[in-house]
């Protein structure tokens, strides 16, 4: 089993990187939230990995921190959750937020993840009930104002990940004089300027 890689980033895509280690190049699927933290092409990267074996395909999944890897492997234990779905979940939610949603049995929070509906959220909560205890690595839900919650929900509906939406909301002025609609426009302008 390949437990980790450290090498030079040769190329990258929407959800993968190619890392050259000792003359061998490995294509590693990573959460989209990790791509920006890996550095530029030609730079060094270190990933904790999981080798997923199917009868016809070997796929390597990589994570910048061990808590992402342990959450990924925990998600694979849920019926109906394959590596692509688990990667999508971790692209949208950091491990602490995912553990918070599971420990508090907050299905509404889980349905904010693209591709996770009410049935999948209920299955995740049910099958992981004994594995995630309140307080086990889970942090309290960040406090957001009602206006910020509206902006987060609108950006999520438009397809932005939770991390992207949170970054846009953090860039907004905290003024009660600005309407939620104007804050959504400003958040979209934030993405246009990136």
Task: Note the main attributes of this structure.
194 residues; alpha+beta; OB fold (Dihydrolipoamide Acetyltransferase, E2P); DNA polymerase, domain 1; Helicase, Ruva Protein, domain 3; 3 domains; 5 strands; 42% helix
Structural features, described:
The chain contains 9 helices and 5 strands, in the order βββαββαααααααα. By secondary structure, it is an alpha+beta fold. The protein folds into 3 domains: 4-63, Nucleic acid-binding proteins (OB fold (Dihydrolipoamide Acetyltransferase, E2P)), CATH 2.40.50; 66-127, 5' to 3' exonuclease, C-terminal subdomain (DNA polymerase, domain 1, Orthogonal Bundle); 146-192, Helicase, Ruva Protein, domain 3, CATH 1.10.8. It starts with a strand and ends with a helix.
Short characterization:
By secondary structure, the protein is of the alpha+beta class.
Model regions low in confidence, pLDDT < 50 over at least 5 residues: 137-142
Q: Tell me the radius of gyration.
A: 18 Å
Shape: flat
**What is the level-2 CATH architecture name of the largest domain?**
Orthogonal Bundle
Number of domains: 3
């Amino acid at each position: 089993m390949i437990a980790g890689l450290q090498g030079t980033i040769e190329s990258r895509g929407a959800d993968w990187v190619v890392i050259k280690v000792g003359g061998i190049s490995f294509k590693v699927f990573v959460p989209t939230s990790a791509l920006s933290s890996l550095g530029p092409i030609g730079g060094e990267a270190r990933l904790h990995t999981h080798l997923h074996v199917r009868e016809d395909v070997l796929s390597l999944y990589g994570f910048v921190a061990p808590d992402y890897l342990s959450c990924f492997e925990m998600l694979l234990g849920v019926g109906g959750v394959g590596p692509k779905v688990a990667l999508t979940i971790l692209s949208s939610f950091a491990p602490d937020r995912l553990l918070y949603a599971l420990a508090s049995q907050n299905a509404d929070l889980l349905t904010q993840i693209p591709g996770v509906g009410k049935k999948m959220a209920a299955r995740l909560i049910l099958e992981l009930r004994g594995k995630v205890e309140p307080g086990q690595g889970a942090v309290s839900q960040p406090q957001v104002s009602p206006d910020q919650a509206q902006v987060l929900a609108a950006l999520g509906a438009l397809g932005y990940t939770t991390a992207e939406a949170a970054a846009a909301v953090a860039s907004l002025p905290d003024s009660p004089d600005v309407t939620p609609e104007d804050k959504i426009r400003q958040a979209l302008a934030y993405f246009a300027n990136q």
